[in-house]
Amino acid sequence: MVGGNGDGDGDGGRRGDERGFDVSVVVPAWNEADYLRGTLSSLVALDTAYEYEVIVVDGGSSDGTPGIAREYGATVVDQEGTGIARARNQGARRAGGEWLAFVDADTEVRANYLTEMLGFVEREQLAAATSYCRIRGPLRAKLMEATINHLFSRLERPILPGFNTFVHRRAFEAVGGFPDVPNEDTAFSRTLASRYPTAYRRAVLVESSGRRIAEKGLTGTLWHYARLDVERIRADY
Predict the structure, then answer these.
(1) If residue 38 lies in a helix (H) or strand (E), which one and from where to where?
(2) What distance in Å separates the CA atoms of residue 104 and residue 79, rounded to the nearest whole number?
(3) Contacts of 84 (CB under 8 A, 6+ apart)
(4) Beta strands in the chain (DSSP E)
(5) 78 Cβ neighbours under 8 A, 6+ residues apart
(6) For residues 19 and 203, what is the distance between their CA atoms, to the nearest angstrom?
(7) Three-class SS of residue 210?
(8) What does the alpha-carbon distance between residue 115 and residue 190 come to, in Å, rounded to a whole number?
């Protein structure tokens, strides 16, 4: 990891050709002290020859989240405005990588995450991808895990969950980043896949908390989009 230790100014800043990172990992965070250490520990421990940076976009935390981020060598950017879509987009503007990896503050990645994802998108000539996941929590969380891994990976326009989205900078910028709407990751995925090839790496490379599923109403939204593709899925059999 080649990371920055200073604060970002929140207005964009450096570009990929100025820093030359292979990947920039963007982590939105607001009062995430209980989870962020696990996320950043997993990012620091990545087993990869690729150069990467970690950017934590802080939404005005009052629990020490920025200090934890600095402990792990992450660049801390003070978020302008509110909302996770804005946080992700602001982190992307600050990033210097050719590829952008969006990881949530309660998500831990496997040591081979970057090597596997970069190899996958390059081999398959993809503009964006995600991987199978594990979601910690009760039955509802496990049902969501199964839905993501075994249904939405097969959609004609795959839904890339916001806690694990790996996308080339040019494609990200071409579609305008994450829209500032409810279930922004679903809307982003559908728009992106209408213009570029996207897919799932069918191996578990991340583990995430299931705490936000009820809060965001993600399940209902994902099932809504699944129904749009169900005839194609059945046709595969």
Answers:
(1) helix 33-44
(2) 15
(3) 28, 162, 178, 184
(4) 7-8, 21-29, 52-58, 75-78, 97-103, 107-109, 128-136, 164-168, 198-209
(5) 7, 8, 10, 58, 60
(6) 30
(7) coil
(8) 25
Hey, what are 25's tokens?
């990992």
User: Bridge partners of 60?
Assistant: none
Picking from 173, 206, 213, 7, the residue whose alpha carbon sits closest to that of residue 93 is: 173
pLDDT of 173-215, one tens digit each? 999 999 999 889 999 999 999 999 999 999 999 999 877 665 5
Enter the pTM of the model: 0.85
Maximum Cα–Cα distance for the chain, whole Å?
Answer: 53
Confidence band, pLDDT 50/70/90 cuts, at residue 220: low
Task: Give exposure, 213-226, as e/b (b: 16+ Cβ within 10 Å).
Answer: beebebeebbeebb
Q: Tokens standing for 145? A: 């895990």
Q: Rg for the chain (alpha carbons), in Å?
A: 17
Is residue 14 very low, low, confident or very high in pLDDT (cuts 50, 70, 90)?
A: very low
DSSP 97-144: EEEEEEE-TTEEE-TTHHHHHHHHHHHHT-SEEEEEEEEESSHHHHHH
* 3-7, 31-35, 208-212: range with highest mean pLDDT: 31-35
Residue 55: phi and psi, rounded to 5, are: -120, 120
Distance CA 142, CA 210 (A): 8
- 40, 96, 150 from 111: Cα distances, Å: 12, 22, 23
